[in-house]
Amino acid sequence: xxxxxxxxTAQDAVVRVEAGEVVLLDVREEQxxxxxxxxxxxxxxxxxxxxxxxxxxRPIVAVxxxxxxxxxxxxxxxxxxxxxxxxxxxxxxWQAAGLPVVRDDGSPGLVL
Length: 112
Fold this sequence. Notes:
Blueprint: E1 7-8, H1 10-18, E2 23-26, H2 30-35, E3 42-43, E4 60-63, H3 68-77, E5 84-87, H4 90-96
Parallel strand pairs: 1-5, 2-3, 2-4, 4-5
């Protein structure tokens, strides 16, 4: 029996991110991040993620393109006591909710 992965929606996540309650952790790869990301996100590619680098001062909302990679990270860390939830639908859901996607220079970005 496996426990469900803790989840949140883009709409709930953005409220908590903007209030400074959580860290939005984008685990997509470099080329995906450069194409576009949430303005408040912290980038930590899953392929190079060092658990010692995780921002543990606040709960974490993990996000990738579709929610698959971030869901795997959440499933691995939540049972270890890390306060982490997966953003359901990933950056696709973020963009579909009309939330901003930007490049590093602040110009409009794309979700790859």
